[in-house]
Write a structure and sequence with these properties.
Elements lengths: L3 H23 L5 H43 L4 H8 L4 H9 L3 H23 L4 H23 L7 H14 L3
Helix pairs in contact: 1-2, 3-5, 4-6, 5-6, 5-7, 6-7
């Protein structure tokens, strides 16, 4: 359900109407103090439901904001310049450029590694909308993955094993 928050808003209104209806009906048959206590309990339960709903919605907004921030970073420096360097090259050409020690290509792939590594960490923490990120970035990960593996195959490179592990986790998760 795309507009799930509207569903919750509707439920709150329905619960409130039901609660007041129960109060009005029962207030005719029970003592006023008991009816008032019942109303207080009904309103308290609805308030608890609303509070839980609010925090859930706030978490959803935070996940969306984090995901859009990752997407925005893709179109900013240094990734924009890095993508310009590797644009138009197929996966095999990128691997050859990394093997040939092409400094510009290696620097670009390093930026891509950092981007996908950070994305992997964000997804692993649960603070993103993973379906959005997968739809937007899976094709790029598929394209750049062979060059990333070639670059990170250097065991002497600081952080290579950790970043490769994180990117492999993302590839496994997205079935790359």
């Amino acid at each position: 359900m795309r507009n799930w928050h509207q569903h919750f808003n509707f439920q709150i209104v329905v619960l409130l109407v039901l609660g007041i209806s129960v109060y009005l009906i029962l207030s005719k048959y029970i003592d006023t103090r008991e009816a008032n206590a019942l109303l207080a309990g009904i309103v308290g339960a609805i308030a608890c439901f609303s509070a839980a709903n609010f925090s859930h919605r706030a978490d959803q907004r935070a996940r969306a904001t984090n995901s859009f921030e990752i997407g925005r970073r893709w179109d900013q420096e240094p990734l924009l310049a890095a993508r310009d360097v590797v644009r138009g090259k197929n996966s095999d050409d990128l691997v050859k450029a990394v093997k040939a020690n092409n400094t510009a290509a290696k620097k670009s792939v390093i930026h891509l590694v950092n981007f996908f590594w950070e994305m992997s960490a964000a997804i692993e923490t649960g603070w993103t909308l993973e379906p959005y990120l997968e739809q937007k970035f899976r094709p790029s990960l598929v394209h750049y993955y062979p060059a990333i593996v070639e670059l990170l195959d250097d065991k002497e490179r600081p952080g290579a094993s950790q970043s490769l592990r994180a990117i492999n986790w993302l590839c496994t998760r997205w079935k790359v």
